[in-house]
Design a protein that fits this description.
The structure is a homodimer. Chain A has a two-stranded antiparallel sheet. The radius of gyration of chain A is 18 Å and the shape is globular. The first copy, chain A, has a single domain (about 10-295), classed as Farnesyl Diphosphate Synthase (Orthogonal Bundle). In chain A, about 70% of the residues lie in helices and about 0% in strands. The first copy, chain A, is an all-alpha fold and about 300 residues long. At the A-B interface, α2, α6 and α7 of A face α2, α6 and α7 of B.
């Protein structure tokens, strides 16, 4: 841990990640209107947090970040599908996303349903098509499947109920966040680390590094969503490029709603410490993850 | 080919198939309301054509039909997801399916979107979780991905356009049908045959049997949809348990619309002959597939 973590820009791979997503999109052979809809919602916008995590987690286990590019692609497709479907009139009914009209506003509701479906199917397709080692492909597919079905379960909990009985307010909101947001962030990190380990001919199952990455990701994923809850309370739509103050309007379960703004901020601090602490065994290759976690803990959009 | 094909009931595995789907559903750990929605749309109804084809194709290559059960499960999950999403108000806006209210009528539109998403994700999950051999799992995942993304492309062509320019009426409708219906039927057949071949320790890639099954499936899948077009023109909702005469109302491209009812019936005959002919190299183990193809060519619902 010789280098100063603060000298590394964790977003430096952003351009290469975007080029990777773009090159995937250009290779798709689909109806032209479907391709346009996928490109509209998938390319040229978004924080690319999940691909960035996959890249940085591949790096953190000692590989090139590029080894994690395909993990980022698959997870970002799932993330993008979920945004398109969550924005639908029957769901959150959002008309603004990433600073532009949502897909169902731009291309109609039927296309938004189908383009979402297509991105979900193509996420799994990308894994089986692009992973040379079959055992690794199966393991990645399993991670993606767990992340995706947990995310959908979380969206059900969040918007339609179905939570186990007898949970207190904070346990309910933690269960929702862990599923809705955390599971796919953990999948990004683990898949990136697994591809990284495989690329340097290291065992990727049960590796000590993978345990550290998983602990980091679990804390980071929850922290990310608590920060999101705080942004919804404290920021404006103009600043964030998406509707804010909507959680309270929709009666959603949030950390500020369950434990208040100040305690939620303290929880962000705890989760950041847990995430950073988990990275200790990985040494300096994990520096960009440390910087990223810190930046995400103070983001305002 | 000693046995008389007509003495075998091709639907005999129906009960075992239903039990297999039921046992999969019982093992899912999801929000209770999501599980209910999936069970409502997935269990206890439907022809189970695709699982039946997977079973019979496993048998046709010399294995036990049971070897194809997991192929049937995965493909039926995809089929079921597609019905739920296609029925949505923004899509075909159907309120009747398999003789009961569609899922969005029964459980609301948001749940229908999410339950469909979940079934799609769980279809891929089922492959990676249930296939012991990693290379086979990857090959099955690839078949499922091609079948699913082609089906979605077909739905786009059918309802939103985007067809390549310069195609005549019959080529347009064939392209739609091959994608929307044929691709997933071919996936069922190929996946069943691949699982069958693997279960008897036969190579499942490039096998002569797999070639025969693919030719059978391609003809059968198109035939199935042409028969569907004819049912929509000639039958009543009371008889079929779903809305009829809707293709013409919606201005959809159909075989009867492109070449008339009589020529469509002749085409069913041609496709049946092609399908049955393709099975010749497989001998008597393919008898149930022959019977099934004949029955499907004359079905009226």
């Amino acid at each position: 841990m010789a280098s100063d973590p603060n000298t590394r820009d964790p977003f430096e791979p952003a351009e290469e990640i975007e080029a990777h997503l773009e090159s995937w999109a250009a290779a798709q052979r689909l109806p032209t209107n479907l391709t346009s809809a996928i490109r509209y919602s998938f390319l040229g916008a978004g924080k690319r947090l999940r691909p960035l995590l996959a890249w940085r987690c591949a790096e953190a286990v000692g590989a090139s970040g590029r080894a994690g590019l395909d993990a980022g692609l698959a997870v970002e497709l799932v993330h993008s599908f979920s945004l398109v479907h969550d924005d639908l009139p029957a769901m959150d009914n959002d008309d603004l996303r990433r600073g532009k009209p949502t897909l169902h506003i731009h291309a109609g509701e039927a296309m938004a349903v189908l383009a979402g479906d297509a991105m979900l199917a193509l996420a799994f397709a990308s894994i089986v098509e692009r992973t040379a080692d079959a055992s690794l492909a199966v393991a990645l597919g399993r991670e993606l499947a767990i992340g995706t079905s947990s995310m959908i379960a979380g969206q059900v909990y969040d918007t339609l109920g179905g939570l186990p009985e007898g949970l207190g307010a904070i346990d309910r909101v933690k269960l929702i966040h862990d599923n809705k947001t955390g599971a796919l962030i953990t999948a990004s990190c683990r898949m990136g680390a697994m591809l990284g380990l495989a690329s340097i001919a290291r065992p990727w199952q049960g590796a000590r590094e993978l345990g550290a990455i998983t602990r980091f990701a679990d804390a980071m994923g929850l922290m990310f969503q608590v920060v999101d809850d705080l942004i919804d309370v404290e920021q404006t739509s103009e600043h964030t490029g998406k509707r804010t103050s909507k959680d309270q309007v929709a009666g959603k379960q949030t950390y500020p709603g369950a434990i208040g703004v100040e305690q939620s901020k303290a929880e962000v601090g705890h989760l950041l410490a847990t995430a950073v602490e988990a990275l200790t065994p990985l040494g300096s290759p994990a520096d960009p993850l440390r910087v990223l976690a810190r930046l995400l803990s103070v983001r305002t959009k």
